[in-house]
Amino acid sequence: MKVLVLGGAGYIGSHVVKAMLGAGHSVTVFDNLSSGQLGNLFPGADFIAGDIRHSSDVEAAFARGFDGCVHLAAYKAVGESMAQPEKYSVNNITGTLNMLNAAGTHGCKNVVFSSSAAVFGSPQYVPIDEKHPTNPESYYGFTKLEIERFLAWYDQIKGIKYAALRYFNAAGYSVDGSITGLERNPQNLLPIVMEVASGWRKELQIFGRDYNTRDGTCVRDYVHVSDLAEAHVNALEYIASRGESLTVNLGSETGVTVTEMVEAARRITGKDIPAAYVGRRSGDASALFATSELARKTIRWNPKHSDVDTLIASTWAVYQKYSAPGVKK
Ligand code: UD1
């Protein structure tokens, strides 16, 4: 298939492009490089420099004719979304509407959307399945849920099929070392742990140790980006071949606490990783993990790299490259 990947130069996007090319699809990346990087572009993929907020850019890209689109061009920092909702309205919501309108105009009938576990809010039960009520607790999560609703309407009215993939905590790097772009100003746990291990940051702050979990720190479901990437390929092929839309959770189905993650990182990196327990971060749910049974059944998803050791070792391998003398971050 001819596939347009919006946000294909980003952290998850670059892994998706690699997987799409590996599955024999032809890929064009559309990215404004605000958080994506030229170094993340694969030689086999075309590149369009464009901004999803500008409908003319999006129209011009779709006019090239695509069978499918993978949409990952969004902001994703939960805290920032509460401080600057405008940014998230314009980029995530207006940007997606630009994409859907252009897909409709130019006959692109299949969209894979990177949604998030943030659509659920604090869980009423775990593991979280797709029937779990949605109640986002951040503006970021709200934008993801609204986009899922737009997708359903454009499916009903325009026949654009979609796969909404609700990622849990994306982490790790391609185990073959082919992707090495670091996220700028990371907000997520594992990159911050790696920055401490690399000596770029003095210590990790662990947000809260009074949760009702086995060691008092939050439980999350970390899933490897290469496993997520494979799900995009399978989902695109599923919706295109069946003409059926799909909403699935993508998690490893294993809950890991923050302390367990840090201890595993100390073991794997051999570094001290100083950490201080501080107060809770607002908006954090105590335990979030998925059941991905539906993804296993429908898109035949079978995560292979989402164990804690692979997540950490593959990330550490990338961070170590930047710790060599003279290598620029
Ligand atoms: C959130 C979203 C998730 C989204 C992701 C994208 C929710 C419920 N989840 O995940 O859907 O895809 O952001 O960025 O909105 N932690 C520390 N110290 C740190 C950083 C994190 O202790 O310096 C802890 C957090 O409190 C949390 C865990 O590590 O318990 C993971 O945090 P993070 O990586 O930020 O992801 P989430 O907030 O779980």
Give a quick summary of the entry.
Helices cover 39% and strands 17% of the residues.
Structure description:
With 329 residues, the protein is α/β, with parallel strands linked by helices. It folds into two domains: 2-171 and 223-250, Rossmann fold; 189-220 and 253-323, UDP-galactose 4-epimerase, domain 1 (Alpha-Beta Complex). It has ten helices and 13 strands. The strands form four sheets. The protein has a seven-stranded parallel beta sheet with strand order 3-2-1-4-5-6-11, sandwiched between helices. A two-stranded parallel ribbon has the order 7-10. Strands 8-13 form a two-stranded parallel ribbon. α1 (11-22) crosses α7. It is globular and about 55 Å long. The model has no long low-confidence stretch (mean pLDDT 96). The chain binds uridine-diphosphate-N-acetylglucosamine. Uridine-diphosphate-N-acetylglucosamine (UD1) binds next to α6 and β8.
